[in-house]
What we know:
globular, Aspartate Aminotransferase, domain 1, Aspartate Aminotransferase, domain 2, 405 residues, alpha/beta
Amino acid sequence: MEKRQLSDLAIFGGSPLFDSPRHVGRPNIGDRQRFMDRVADMFDRRWLTNNGPNVVEFEDRIAAITGAPHCIAVCNATIGLELLFKALALSGEVVVPSFSFVATAHALQWLGLTPVFCDVDIDTHTLDPTSVERSITANTSAILGVHTWGRSCKVTALQEIADRRGIRLIFDAAHAFGSSHEGQMIGSFGDAEVFSFHATKFLNSFEGGAITTRDGALADRLRSMRNFGFAGLDLVTSSGTNAKMTEISAAMGLTSLESMNEFVATNRKNYELYKVLLSDIPGLHLYELPHGEYLNFQYIVVRVDESTCGINRDDLVEILLSENIFARRYFYPGIHEMMPYRSDNQIARAKLPITELLTSQLFQLPTGTAMSEEDIRRVVGLLAFIVGNGSAASKLHAQTAKLAS
């Protein structure tokens, strides 16, 4: 229903705009029959895991798209990061953005490494090389960059720092499959890059990930370590774990790859529509993606300027949730504000002013093949209504919350 007055908003007693949730990251499915055909073949072969033909083909396809000569498929990206840290024998401290999903830091902390949080660039939301330089100590063994929203880090500047300091450079590329940096596909930068194919990513394998690298010796170590350290049928040459991707996950990954161009085209169409519609709403600013690059367009990221909108990001998101628009405050509240990393908050805040600002202002809106053009128009229409009544909505929300408490 169209919202004409504040009492029409669901949070104030009205009916929700959507009768079912519109999620950020709702899975893209692809050709169901093609997937089922692969599953039938898998059952006929009775080969369900342990580097089967689906996994091998999936790795070959990922390597071809990224341009990296080596691809190692894994059960998920978090395990992929941990496997890579072990294979590179990292120790001590690793410089990492706080502005990321918590798994980026957890993978380090889980292995006894110390994440040292540094700030990001205000425009790109990726690592600020100046902040990285300040964060390196004698105990630093690596820089872990995050390609955020599908946009690449400042690869050249980070590589120069890593080379000069004699440390490793790794990239968490969970957001960036199918994207490029200066015309070169992400996947072959630094020592290695780790992709996610989780169900919420635009291209998914249910659960899954992949490590890509130009280093053949590192690739061999990773392949052995993901399979308990085996280097042959009965030969174990190192410690390892079980990080293998299953055949059914690879089947979904292959099926997703066949629809990849369709998924990206839909994402781009949605992004361009949001861009046009949001431009008419003062105080809401769509994250600008770079021109001249391959991009997956999988995230609709909006910054809220409260001084113009009259309402803050958190209140706005809460109103959207009540309307069955499941917007997300990414990345909130910043890893440095989460346990177990909160021990010295005041110092962290002083070091991370851009991270602090972004985590208080940004949110994501739904996109992907599950969102129609009409859905997007209704979402933005609602945003226009809320912002147009921002101060009044904020005041009424505060009064309602006070009464509820």
